[in-house]
Structure to design on (75 residues):
């Protein structure tokens, strides 16, 4: 999770990713940020996020995103 928080902070360092669960709902991260995140996650965790998993629920919080990474890692 720490690695993911570091990736997120490199995009928007002003956000408290430990508590924020409205990253998409409040337009904190946009489509460009998501593309960057997907690339960074692929590099850092060796996980490819398929297009059908790029939904707001998976990107609204660091916790949801980390759960996605864990789930995809197990597949």
């Amino acid at each position: 999770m720490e690695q993911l928080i570091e990736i997120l902070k490199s995009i928007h360092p002003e956000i408290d990713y430990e508590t924020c669960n409205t990253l998409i709902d409040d337009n904190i991260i946009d489509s460009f940020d998501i593309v960057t995140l997907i690339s960074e996650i692929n590099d850092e965790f060796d996980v490819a996020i398929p297009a059908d998993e790029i939904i707001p629920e998976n990107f609204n919080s660091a916790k949801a995103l980390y759960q996605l990474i864990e789930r995809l890692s197990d597949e």
Residues 2-74 form a domain with the Non-ribosomal Peptide Synthetase Peptidyl Carrier Protein; Chain A fold (CATH 1.10.1200.10). The chain has one domain: 2-74. The mean pLDDT is 96. The radius of gyration is 11 Å.
